[in-house]
Amino acid sequence: MSAVAIPGWARAVRDDAVELVAPEGPAGGVITVRARVRPLLRLDELVARWAGPDVEMLAPPARVDTDEGEHGAVVAVIARRGDARLRVELGIVVGDGSYDVVVGVVAADAPHAARLAAEVRRLVERVRLGLGVRRRLVLHDRPAGWRGCPRGLETDWLAPGFPDDPARLTVFPAVPAVGVTAVDAATRLAAEAAAAPALAGAEWIDEIRTTPRGLRVMIRSAAAGGRAVDLAVASDGRYVYAVRLERRAGDPCRRIFDATVDSLVPVPVERAEIDEGLAHWAM
Length: 283
What we know:
Layout: E1 10-14, E2 17-21, E3 30-37, H1 43-51, E4 55-57, E5 62-65, E6 71-81, E7 84-94, E8 99-107, H2 113-126, E9 147-151, E10 154-158, E11 168-171, E12 175-176, H3 182-194, E13 205-210, E14 216-224, E15 227-235, E16 239-248, H4 254-263
Antiparallel strand pairs: 1-2, 2-3, 3-8, 4-6, 5-6, 6-7, 7-8, 9-10, 10-11, 11-16, 12-16, 13-14, 14-15, 15-16
């Protein structure tokens, strides 16, 4: 974590963390940075772990793309610890099954809250995971009421009535678009689905549209024997993204599939060139 520093702030390494103290001392704010924390948790669980269970959100969480091209987020809360009210600025950078966390703390009524928030955001943007081009976890909205079952970088969402309702939504990892196109991926997924006896010989209906985040998506749907499959495959030229819904024919949960596809967050674009020779010294 040798790269973690803020000009004018005192710096100390404590166990698995770097602690930064404002020029005015702790009253001006303290920021703690930890790397490679496991396991990766939901945002509400992260807030509870690092800010405490008794918090008041000051604003919705904000997405932050790091300079390296990783997904991050910042959130500000008021935390109550005994009689004290603290402002906690929490920053997260998502890795592969782990995360880096930046926690800034100052008294709720301190005059330096805005500065603390800006420094936490800057540190989040500068986090270097050094993971490079690879299969990536795809961020997306949680389908309301569905149960998530993460499997590595892949996530299955099971319908509220599962297994009586067999609907299953799968969000696949983003795959580097090296020798792979969206058409290739759609053809492969359709072939896998068509191998099921219920869909043998089913006619596929294709649709092309653009998501609100600008991903051009090919959607393929087929239904036969009371079973239906919907496939969505997209590419931004760097990565290929895929979502699959398996359901009963006529099940209205197709709208959940459409909403999930529209919520896919493309892998961030790297904003700064990384010196790979120094990557092992990064955060």
